[in-house]
Amino acid sequence: xxxxxxxxxxxxxRRRRTLVTAGVLAFAIIIFLxxxxxxxGLTEISYDNIINLESAHLEVGREELYQQDFESPLKKSFYPxxxxxxxxxALPGYRSHTEVLDFSANIxxxxxxxxxxxxxxxxxxxxxxxxxxxxxxxGEFLTSEAEGLVIGSQLADVLELKPGDFFTLLFQDRExxxxxxxxxxxxxxTTPHPDMNLGTVFYNRAQAYNALRVEPGAANRxxxxxxxxxxxxxxxxxxxxxxxxxxxxxxxxxxxxxxxxAMQAAGRxxxxxxxxxxxxxxxxxxxxxxxLAALERMxxxxxxxxxxxKEGEIVGVFALEAIGIxxxxxxxxxxxxxISVALFNRFGFDLGILLGEETTFGIPLIxxxxxxxxxxxxxxxxxxxxxxxxxASIIPAFWAARKDPIDAIYKR
Length: 412
What we know:
Layout: H1 2-11, H2 15-55, E1 58-62, H3 82-89, E2 94-108, E3 113-121, E4 136-139, E5 149-152, H4 153-159, E6 166-172, E7 178-189, H5 194-198, E8 200-204, H6 205-212, E9 221-226, H7 229-242, E10 248-252, H8 253-256, H9 258-296, H10 298-306, H11 311-347, E11 349-350, H12 351-355, E12 368-369, H13 375-401, H14 405-409
Parallel strand pairs: 3-8, 5-7
Antiparallel strand pairs: 1-9, 1-10, 2-3, 2-6, 2-9, 4-7, 5-8, 6-7, 11-12
């Protein structure tokens, strides 16, 4: 306790210097917590967009559909039999499914042409798995009788299309012959998933069979909605085992989210690098504080050694002072960081300000993002700030403690 009282008294001898050094540590902690929250929120919303608008929780298709080749996905279509559907509906956590027929095409309006992925859907079951219809901004979404096309808002802007305008889809059918589908734009959607707004269009599957030369009822993907993401992963593993030898394969949302996972890992690494750089600056500041404190208190150090205090006890005094600075910085940083993250979660941040309206860098979301909570990050960075302060004090503290008592008293 005696050493602790000495350290506490000395900590506030130079209050401004102490607060500035603690402030550097606090700044590093605040930046880390806010960026960590942003990455967590960015990842969470990206996963939701992929699941709700693009891939569902899991999908089933022929094994060759997922091989890296250039063969048309129409050639990998199949008729979903009752046995396969029963396997899917029996999965724990199953909620609903829909069958889709994906293929590549070029959409043209007579003046311009643009490559797209056409997702031929069943208008009745599709909204039970995907949320695309919830983002309709003009016209109508597909119905059982509709022969029109639903496109994304970015594609509509590129081709200057609106509901009622005519389109032509140029594609290769299942036999490899070129064919076309013509009609009117029925609706426009503006989703938070940029790829769906620009590169994907929706058409009635029942109206496409003849032009695609596939048998009625055929699909190349069965998209399944589960109760949650974790259940989907375990269910896909179980389904993959039961499908072994049947020619079919199951994939989860994780396969479509590989880029997001890679970006998350890279972002977290960058965040730790930034934290490390700022903490290095803080560590240098703490070392300077200890050295300056030692220079200012040379006579005091000499008197303590003359009174019998050991080197380890003197080192302990300076280390406790540094830990006090680290503790102040960690408390301030975590407190302000908590408020910042809470505000981020409440009000969000518009990505358009940071990336621009049309720039996404491959992130499957646009618009406003909200932060996520990571209690473990608060605990980690709190103790890490204290540890950095302690380590930064060791060398200068030993230097001060090893001064000869006579030299220290006479400042030699």
